């Protein structure tokens, strides 16, 4: 028995040695053409493709995805994409580039495909070996990479004109030098810088966290939103950028103010979510609970619109508004500054609200 085992072990060792020598001879001989213009055979390509896909899936599945509908995040991602990605992954209306035809494997045209957020983040951060995809994580932090992922979610639905517009309004990026791509400027002047101070026309909005606001009504400015919640930013919103979506937002606000439950719910998509104070609820939960409270709160409220703007991204649009609200709760005067961000999706000829974000903070006596 021992002789048999020993003989078997020697045979295995010899076979492995021969295979190793053969592999070494193959590699050293230069027979294999490493040129990118000599493509893999189908079996080799299938193995490498499966290896790549499974590696990315396993390493990205536990990533926590932030709110990718944040308009400021999308705007930042637009500038990053225009600076770093178009020569390989193209843009709306761009059929090819000088660089792309020579790349193997061929990079996907990201203006035509929808990408998984987790996998996209991992790929952008870590890159892919033996391809032209670099690891941007060495020069860009995670929030910047997530901004690119957020933009990629909107890109396939954009027209060339919409793409050019959003890139032109993207914030300046001191770390990148992208020249004159799509009219985008990386100086601290121009459209991106001007947007921060651009006045916007008025629209109705409303406040939330009513009881807490009443309790804080006579205190110094103290946010009624969760401490862990990121303040809503209206940067990048421009008046009449998406007029039809703005009209739906206005109709939604008016329906709430006049107490019309049916009209309010009709403007919400079946899968709509409503977020405020760090928590999120479904359309059904909102209809059965907080909707009634909102209607009661707004019944006698005096609302002063401050600003309204929107951002159009193909069949999606963001509408942001800000208002000052004054009312009385439990006998106490309440003054709030309320911000509302609506995410809308176009289906056919109509727009539906798919996500609502509300935040409000008490105003000081001077209203600031």
CATH topology of the largest domain: Nuclear Transport Factor 2, Chain: A
The beta-strand count equals: 6
Radius of gyration in whole Å, from Cα?
27 Å
Span of the ends, CA to CA = 91 Å
The side-by-side strand order for the widest beta sheet comes to 2-1-6-5-4-3
Overall number of structural domains: 2
Shape: elongated
Give the structure's gist in a few sentences.
This protein has 368 residues and is an alpha+beta fold.
Question: Characteristics of this structure?
Answer:
six-stranded mixed sheet; 2 domains; Cytochrome Bc1 Complex, Chain D, domain 2; alpha+beta; Nuclear Transport Factor 2, Chain: A; 13 helices; 368 residues; 39% helix
Explain this structure.
This protein is α+β, with helices and mostly antiparallel strands and 368 residues long. The protein folds into two domains: 133 residues, Orthogonal Bundle (Cytochrome Bc1 Complex, Chain D, domain 2), CATH 1.10.760.10; 153 residues, Nuclear Transport Factor 2, Chain: A (Roll), CATH 3.10.450.50. It has 13 helices and six strands. It has a six-stranded mixed sheet. A hairpin with a 2-residue loop joins strand 5 and strand 6. Helix 2 crosses helix 5 and helix 3 packs across helix 6. The termini are far apart. About 15% of the residues have low confidence.
């Amino acid at each position: 028995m021992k002789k048999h085992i020993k003989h078997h072990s020697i045979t295995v060792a010899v076979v492995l040695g021969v295979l190793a020598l053969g592999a070494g001879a193959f590699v050293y001989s230069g027979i294999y053409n490493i040129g990118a213009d000599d493509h893999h055979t189908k079996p080799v390509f299938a193995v490498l493709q499966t290896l790549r896909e499974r590696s990315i899936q396993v390493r990205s599945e536990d990533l926590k995805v932030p709110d990718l509908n944040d308009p400021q995040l999308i705007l930042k991602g637009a500038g990053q994409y225009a600076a770093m990605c178009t020569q390989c992954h193209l843009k709306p209306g761009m059929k090819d580039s000088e660089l792309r035809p020579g790349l193997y494997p061929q990079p996907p045209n990201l203006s035509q495909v929808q990408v998984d957020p987790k996998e996209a983040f991992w790929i952008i951060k870590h890159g892919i070996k033996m391809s032209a995809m670099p690891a941007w994580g060495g020069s860009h932090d995670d929030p910047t990479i997530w901004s690119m992922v957020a933009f990629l979610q909107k890109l396939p639905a954009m027209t060339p004109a919409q793409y050019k517009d959003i890139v032109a309004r993207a914030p300046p990026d001191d770390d990148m030098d992208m020249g004159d791509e799509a009219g985008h400027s990386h100086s601290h002047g121009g459209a991106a810088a001007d947007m921060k101070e651009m006045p916007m026309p008025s629209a109705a909005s409303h406040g939330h966290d009513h009881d807490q606001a009443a309790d804080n009504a006579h205190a110094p400015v103290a946010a009624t939103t969760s401490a862990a919640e990121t303040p809503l930013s209206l940067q990048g919103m421009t008046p009449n950028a998406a007029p039809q979506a703005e009209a739906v937002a206005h109709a939604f606000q008016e329906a709430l103010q006049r107490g019309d439950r049916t009209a309010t719910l009709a403007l919400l998509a079946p899968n709509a979510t409503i977020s405020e104070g760090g928590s999120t609820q479904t359309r059904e939960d909102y209809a059965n609970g907080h909707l009634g409270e909102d209607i009661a709160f707004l019944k006698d409220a005096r609302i002063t619109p401050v600003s309204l703007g929107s951002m159009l991204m193909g069949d999606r649009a963001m509408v942001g508004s800000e208002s000052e609200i004054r009312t009385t709760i439990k006998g106490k005067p309440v003054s709030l500054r309320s911000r509302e961000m609506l995410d809308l999706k176009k289906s056919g000829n109509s727009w539906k609200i798919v996500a609502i974000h509300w935040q409000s903070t008490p105003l000081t006596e001077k209203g600031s």
